Amino acid sequence: MNTKPDAQALFDGGILRRAALDAVRKLDPRSLARNPVIFTTEVVAALVTFIWLRDLFASRADVGFSGQIAAWLWFTVLFATFAEAVAEGRGKAQAASLRRTRSDASAKRLLDPKNLGDLYEGVNALDLKVGDVVLVEAGDLIPSDGEIIAGVASVNEAAITGESAPVIREAGGDRSAVTGGTTVLSDWIKVRVTAAPGSTFIDRMIALVEGAQRQKTPNELALSILLSGMTLIFLIAVVTLWGLAGYSGTVVSVVVLVALLVTLIPTTIGGLLSAIGIAGMDRLIRFNVIATSGRSVEAAGDIDTLLLDKTGTITFGNRMATEFLPVPGVDERSLAEAALLASLSDETPEGRSIVALAKADHGLSEPDFGARAPVVIPFAAQTRISGVDIDKRAIRKGAVDAILRFANTAIEHAPAEFRQAVDQVARTGGTPLAVAENDRLLGVIHLKDVIKPNIRERFAALRAMGIKTVMVTGDNPVTAAAIASEAGVDDFLAEATPEDKLAYIRKEQKGGRLIAMCGDGTNDAPALAQADVGVAMQSGTQAAREAGNMVDLDSNPTKLIEIVEIGKQLLITRGSLTTFSIANDVAKYFAILPALFVATYPQLGALNVMRLASPQSAILSAVIFNALIIIALIPLALRGVAYRPVGANALLRRNLLVYGLGGLVLPFIGIKAIDLVIAALHLA
Amino acid sequence: MSLIGWVQICLTLALVLAAAMPLGAYMAKVFSGGQTFIAPVLRPLEHGFYRVAGVDPDKEQGWLAYALSVLAFSLVGFASLYAILRLQAYLPWNPQGFDGVAPDLAFNTAVSFVTNTNWQAYGGETTMSHFSQMAGLAVHNFLSAAAGLAMAMAVTRAFARSGSATLGNFWVDLTRATLYVLLPLSILVALAFVALGVPQTLDGSADATTLEGARQVIALGPIASQEAIKQLGTNGGGFLNANSTHPFENPNALSNALSIFSMLVVSTALPITFGRMVGARRQGFALLAAMALLLVAGVAIVYAAETSGNPLLSALGVDPSMGNMEGKEVRFGQAMTALFVAVTTGLSCGAVNAMHASLTPLGGLVPLMLIQLGEVLPGGVGSGLYGMIVFAVLAVFVAGLMVGRTPEFLGKKIEAREMKLAMLAVLILPLVILGFSSVAAMLPAALASLANAGPHGLTEILYAYSSAAGNNGSAFAGLSANTPWFNTTLGLSMALGRFAYVVPVLAIAGSIAAKTRAPVSAGTFPTDTPLFVGLLVGIILILGGLQFFPALALGPIVEHVLMLAGQTF
Q1: b/e per residue B141-151 (b: at least 16 CB within 10 A)
Q2: How far is A163 from chain B (nearest CA, A)?
Q3: Which pLDDT score is estimated for A102?
Q4: What does the pLDDT look like over A130-187, one tens digit per residue?
Q5: Which of A234, A238, A247, A651 to mutate against chain B (most B CBs within 10 Å)?
Q6: CB neighbours of residue B33 within 10 Å
Q7: CA–CA distance from A564 to each of A285, A287, A678, B436 (Å)?
Q8: What is the pLDDT of residue B422?
Q9: Interchain contact, A579 vs B399, CB within 8 Å
Q10: Burial of B232 per CB tally in 10 Å (0-12, 13-18, 19+)
Q11: Which chain A residues have a beta carbon less than 8 Å from that of B469?
């Protein structure tokens, strides 16, 4: 699973070979019936083959023509099944590697699960039932999905996430879920099994990537209805043509009518539709996101509002020193120096960030105390102060009130500039720390939540796509507002509880909006379930993972944005190829119609705008173009049409130009080119 | 083509647009139950109807109840009209003493008027009594148009509402459409027709002795009032057999312009009503723009084809400067005839001021295509709007995905159920038109009705079934349609073209109304831009027209290339 996007070649030899075999296997009409357009093509291909055989035995003259048409009709069907097989092939390769990691090893089932006694029996992992408690010790494979009820262990989850750094799993809290197939590296845990054999996370992942349980997604279903309807309409047009042509004394051959039908029905999109869907899911999987339903991938494209946790998504999550604000009479450098000295013993991220800032901005280095060993006062949560005593100098930094107490001053007696600095930092959502030497206040350190680089641009891009971003944070409204405006989100939810999140989602949904969010805690579960796209972190609890309809194996909340883009790309690819396919029909008419009636009305040759060599070569060229275009578009269907985060209008204009106008023009060129080849080779 | 011709065309269309704006706003008020200037007079009358009929105007219907009301109403209308026609010999106002109408013709005519088609397999002045004309046909001229208007409003409400189980009340919509829209307009237009010289009398025919001493019967009757609703309700069934070519139906250039104006005005106003009611006025204009674009293109082709005339006649020494004048009235001229031809078929009106069979092949191709495109340019009263909405839904579905969202139109998601129903609806036209035409083209009994051989004959058949299924009602002429075969199959085509279409459309409305309306954002597929108008035009041509292309190639298209090659039919 450690395949990042584009790491795997679009087509590799092994997959192609297996896909070619699968393509033939998929010709089985029972499975093809799911795809009415291609099924119709297969039926008429069989019909033309029958006619060809009949003519062969009757030694008719134009048997070469009907034979070629039959062959290309079969190719049309084969190319369509091949497209699906290639799309599935990549999933199958991944499933195979997953299966290798699945454990069928033995498990240590506790004999007395109630009291968690240490006695166990060895059983096969496949015999475990929900509710059993197993002991997993260092080096053991975790036999099934479960919840830790006792112990703490470091676990290697590379089998699922591809990330080899071990993670800590412990009983209670949000880190208690373990996944079958992962390995305990140290210590031991007792795990209550929560999944029956065959329905564990890995089992479901295998099924998903294999596409075994694949069902048509809602939009795919609606689209296939449109395509079936169009097939029916053109079937009517072609069948009735028999009578209408008969009136004019033209006997149109069945082979030619079939050729007309197959070129008119939307075989291009019909043949590629399921490949597009599979490839979309596959793109998510290669992004290390598992969607438990295809519906959610489509919904991702429709998202109107993104609920993003502040910590980890918008900010790095740690407060960092960004500024030194000295009181008058103290220069900034001496304040920085004092802060550096006072923070050397502070191992918290905040303390380290002060040291880093002092070094970076003021070129200070670690002081050399020489022989005078300083007295270090380490940071403690109770005192909220750290510092150092060097000779008579007692330098401290810490929370403002604690430092005031240390300096024996009340806030009213502090210098006005000091008070102003404290206020200003607090007002902008930051945290002020004070620095003092003995009784003297030196100044203020500005700690703030640092926004991730480029996140503002990403939110602007989302806004251009019409997506509203909402920051969710436990901070107070003042801090939240400051960070929200700095990060450029559209709205924020301050002092948010899980209930607030749920209420917010319900309110937005009532207004007709679709919401995406991510979460990992058990208390996120209701909101994850309520959201249209709920992405649970793989590191989260079992409850969260059950509630969401996607799981992010990398546990990276920023991915929500990419998930939306992948959803959009899937829909765009589907729409572009549909438009292309339908626009193709115009040229095919101009190729086939004049050829169709040329015997009765040679004057209709005026419609032969492409000046195709002969009626037979015209029909053959159209059929060949129709088949080859499927193969030609497979890479696009699998890779997806490029998505740019611009407004819908710009996107539509571009895609309509490329796929609508392109779809109108390209077949004229393609059919003419094929006709030239056919004429040169004397095929018709 | 001449500049003055285009000035006439543009002036007429500009007047229509100018009148459609206030009319559209007025209808939006009428059908939302708002206060209108005419309400103080009509409100008591309206409520009187409800009391008599036992209708609770505040009780709304879901789509199924609405559709069943439409069907029941039409069935009763059909039965009563059939009875009137069969029994007219025993009914009053029959000064010419006509017999009852034959069963197959009565069936055909009753279906024809109930479906707003007004296909006429009979000659009015030689078949119908004044009672049949006024109490039978004219009544349905109002009611079938009002029913269309009502259904269009139901579909409009589906997009205007969010999470609604109902679409309105059919009986209320029907009453309001008649009382507030069609009746007042008809009175105005009828008076204008009278002023322009159209007869309005209950007398029978007048006898005259011609200069040669022959006796001539000049048909008279309540023509002006029939004429007004014939055009306003996009009915098109003329009082006289010659329809709007007859000097008593359409005496002069002004009455001709008024005819075109009144045909177009309601259907042109409806997209504006739609835009107002759904709270997106630009959307209404976008729909209207797509309609206008294709309609004006149709006018231009007819005008160009007719003025360039027939090369065969020019070769014989006929002055080509007038263009092809066969089957046209000199008093209307080429420009206003071209406009009439395209408008009457772009609408599902079907009145004619020229013989369509006498148009050049390309000139005749246009009305045929305009009908086959689904009668949405701008289509019949009401039916044009809901037909256009079906195309808009299809356009949104095909191309909407290209912006990276599942398709939505006016904030309503278009999903599998809507697609299933939309495909059911759009299947009807090709199935009926091509199916029946194909059978008729091979059936000796049907072929006996043709006046012309070759592709022109095929066009006559295609035109008849297109006109019937599209609920247009205009005739290509040349086809003797008053035979049991044609009366029956054309009657079926009309019924299927109307009812098999509207039931799925109302079902779409029902499911759309129930959906929550999503707010518009920068990511929403824009449906009110020129780009969308272009897309919509493309979808109408490809999904609405391509399936007829092979048939058209064998009819008017081949006739055109044969004409250029010197062969005629």
Answers
A1: bbbbbbbbbbb
A2: 32
A3: 60
A4: 888 999 988 888 888 888 888 888 888 777 766 667 788 888 777 788 888 888 888 8
A5: A247
A6: 13
A7: 14, 12, 46, 49
A8: 96
A9: yes
A10: buried
A11: none
Does B562 contact A576 at a Cβ distance shorter than 8 Å?
A: no
pLDDT tens digits, B289-324:
999 999 999 999 999 999 998 888 888 888 888 888
Residues sharing a CB contact under 8 Å with residue B133, sequence separation 6 or more, in sequence order: B124, B221, B222, B226, B239
Residue A40: HSE in the Cβ half-sphere, 13 Å Cα cutoff: 23
How far is A370 from B288, CA to CA, in rounded Å? 88
B565 interaction partners in chain A (CB closer than 8 Å): 603
CA distance B502 to chain A (A): 18
Residues of B in contact with A514 (CB under 8 A): 518
Q: How high is the pLDDT of residue A288?
A: 84
Q: Do B423 and A229 touch (CB under 8 A)?
A: yes
Contact A264 B546 (CB under 8 A): yes
Give me the pLDDT at residue A370, please: 67
Q: In this complex, is the C-beta atom of B401 within 8 Å of any C-beta atom belonging to chain A? A: yes
What is the arithmetic mean of pLDDT over B350-373?
92
Closest to B437 (Cβ–Cβ): which among A218, A240, A607? A240
Q: Taking a C-beta distance cutoff of 8 angstroms, is the pair B117, B498 a contact?
A: yes
**ipTM value:** 0.93
pLDDT digits 0-9 by tens, B92-151: 888 888 999 999 999 999 999 999 999 999 888 888 988 998 889 989 999 999 999 999
- Please answer yes or no on whether B550 and A238 come within 8 Å at the CB atom: yes
pTM reported for the whole predicted model: 0.88
* Angle at A180 (CA atoms; ends A175, A181), nearest 5 degrees: 115
* For residue B63, pLDDT beyond 70: yes
Q: Which of residues 347 through 386 in chain B touch A, CB cutoff 8 A?
A: none
Cβ neighbours, 10 Å, residue A126: 15
B373 residue type, one letter: L
Residue A183 phi/psi, 5° resolution? -120, 135
Please give the pLDDT value at position A101. Answer: 61
Query: Which of B162, B401, B420 has the CB atom closest to A578's CB atom?
Result: B401
- Could you tell me the two tokens for A320? 């960092």
CB-based contact B430 A236, cutoff 8 Å? yes
d(CA A122, CA A135): 10
| Chain B residue with Cα closest to A249 | B454
Which positions in chain A touch B404 (Cβ < 8 Å)? 301, 465, 567-569, 571-572, 643, 648, 651
Mean pLDDT, rounded, for A203-230? 82
Q: Cα distance from A240 to chain B (closest Cα, Å)?
A: 5
Q: Using 50, 70 and 90 to split pLDDT, how confident is the model at A212?
A: low
The string over B385-413, giving b where at least 16 C-beta atoms fall within 10 Å of a residue's C-beta and e elsewhere, is bbbbbbbbbbbbbbbbbbbbbbbbbbbbb
pLDDT band at B86 (very low <50, low <70, confident <90, very high): very high
Q: Among all residues of A, which ones are annotated catalytic?
A: 309
Contact B305, B360 (CB under 8 A): yes
**Contacts of A503 by beta carbon, 8 Å cutoff, 6+ apart:** none
CA–CA min distance A133, chain B (Å): 45
Give strand ranges (E) for A158-288: 167-170, 177-178, 183-193
Q: Given a cut of 50, is residue A4 above it in pLDDT? A: no
Q: Which of B398, B551, B562 sits opposite A244 (nearest CB)?
A: B551
Q: What are phi and psi of A496, to 5 degrees?
A: -80, 130
Reply yes or no on whether the pLDDT at A316 is more than 80: no
Token pair for B415: 């999903």
Q: Which two tokens stand for residue B363?
A: 């000139």
Six-digit token string for B541: 């041509």
Confidence band of A474 (pLDDT split at 50, 70, 90): confident
